[in-house]
Amino acid sequence: MSVSALLSALLLLASTASASHFYGGTMTFDPRKNPDGSYRVDIRFKEAYHSCDMGNPWYCGTGDCGSTTFVSGLVDSSPNGGSWCQTEGVMKKTVPNNSPFQLHQSSCCWVYNTVSYVGNWRLLTHIDLGERSDTSKPNRSPVVTTLPIVRVPQNCARNYNLLSCDSDHDQVRCRYGLFSANECGMCNQHAGFTLDESTCTLSYANSSIGVYAFELVMEDYPTHIINLNYTAMAAAVRSPFNDASSNPPLSKIPLQFALEVEAPAPSCTEGEYLPRFLHPTPHHGEHLQARVNQELEIRVKATATFSSITDVVFSGPLNSTKDTTTTGEYVINWTPISENYGQHFPFCFIAEGQYGSRNYQSEMRCVIVVVEAEGPRAHVTCTKDTMSVSIERTTISGIHGDHLRLNNNDSCAVSSNSTHVFTTFSLNGCGTQMEETDEHLLFKNTIVTYDDPNHIITRKDEIEIEVMCKYQKKSSITTRFDAHRPAVNFTERGFGSFSYEFEFYQSGGFRNIRDPNSYPLEYSVGQSIFMEIAPVNVVQNTEIFLESCVATPYDNPNYPISYPIITNGCGVDETVQIYTSHQPDVKFSIEAFKFIGQYDQVFISCSIILCQANNPNTRCALGCNNGTRVAPSSHVHKREAGIQTGSHFISQGPLRLRRSATLTEAISPSLNLNLVFVAGCVIAVVAMVCGMMVYKSRGSKVNYKLLKSDEI
Known about the structure:
The chain has 712 residues and is mainly beta. Among the domains are: 275-356, Immunoglobulin-like; 378-477 and 691-702, Sandwich (Immunoglobulin-like), CATH 2.60.40; 482-628 and 641-659 and 671-681, Zona pellucida, ZP-C domain (Immunoglobulin-like, Sandwich), CATH 2.60.40.
């Protein structure tokens, strides 16, 4: 063998090895015309293998494919389903004119355990940049992505609604690739599966256990007859789809993935072994809004009775990331840049649950993210205990600085001058909420517009500006957020503005409050904790109702580790005592207790309602409601809306269990260890990562569909 032949063989072997264990790939493109008459085409392609292959193996087939710049990176990976890694590459091509061209790539081999045999794979993309007569712009491809491998138990029928969205509003169709057109490697159409070409829905009914390779082609057709005009060739006519042979599509892109039929599951009911999505997970096909240079969050949550949710795998654009919160939510983050403005980006995700040695997948959901122009420009500065926000006035035109406030909280001022709106607030106050992930602590608050509560209409734009400080966690350095909570201000129509304090007292006489400078307060196991929630200034002819109270590790009543003290006005803990009712204030107590674990501090959060005094039609008048009676307030006529407020949260803490050498002996052996009262709030912070801002437009926000009763 000659040296050149040997070298060629070695190169082929290296190429084959790096491209083996193929799990599939997709491609989309978005073109635009340059001022000099040339065209720029942003091409995004995803591929998945056993290992993370980040090369650019695409070759020019027909036409002038122009010059290329290229970047790539990891999207997501998983050890399940044979272990896979999906990457995305972004090619930016400059072509001299808008004539059609094709890109292709091929190699060996599909994943080894495919049902038929281990075969080659091929991908082909047809890009037509003809200027459309209906939009006066080049044609854009459908928007598509998918997980590299989806898995289904053999006994569970399932529909896979492949994302089929087109930003030109064309009709999107899917079909099996043709070997004669170099669109596929094995080109199998598997028994037990049905493809609805008009809706791009792949349905599984029943088939043998194993891995199946699906090599599909996605095409777009106009909904009415249009012309495609070119700079270097004659115009062409494109018409709506009629049949497979009568008229060509506007473009065609590959959609290839693996589907594994696994051993039967004990049950096919979603939410038992197979994970089921919960709110706030977006619905399939939903369009979400993102803004340039502002982080987008897609929050995903799932549940299963018998399986443990272990991961959410996803496919999204380059530089998207995934985080896990301590509340069991998975958060997919992505920040679009200026060149993404006006573009559409697909995200698909699947929840995975584990039962014994088996892993089960939920349905696959996909959403479209539409990138809008940059919103309000804000600078966020984070310190160890405060957040400072400065917003450029020119980016919130139409909004006066006096019409903004923090999280509906009157006590936390938002100031302004001729150029900026600004505020500084404590990480513990002004309604700031804390969220914890595996690696970070996130403190979030929202700046919102508001009106005079006595007005019932507004002509101002409504905005929400979410600001956030993000800190890395590390156990070697600690920073405490132990400040005593000040009074909380509320505003409601019919009641105006009112302020309430949450204080702890030294004894049941409720005469001497615990010194605010002594926080965190220390208590011994079994010691009574005396509390009062009272108005700063008494609102005449009102009474307060203590609706609920919970103990949590952080100043967040929705934290997943919580212990209920009062629910629906009824004492849940056996030691709780409520001393006053139908009064402007409420006094209550509970005995401190210990939960064996890592936590040593706690916040107490309560929900209160303010009512007209001596009105039998209020929630306050009903008192403790164990669920057997309907609250009178549910029958209140709209004209009587001013007889009571909505629920308002107020919190205080932290409390700490007093440590002593005899602590173990002080704990009663019969104590219910499920009572989580003492929980930790020692926040380990080594470095501030960043301050961020997310813009949300309430006026144009995409509404979620109504949830089914089993999703609430």
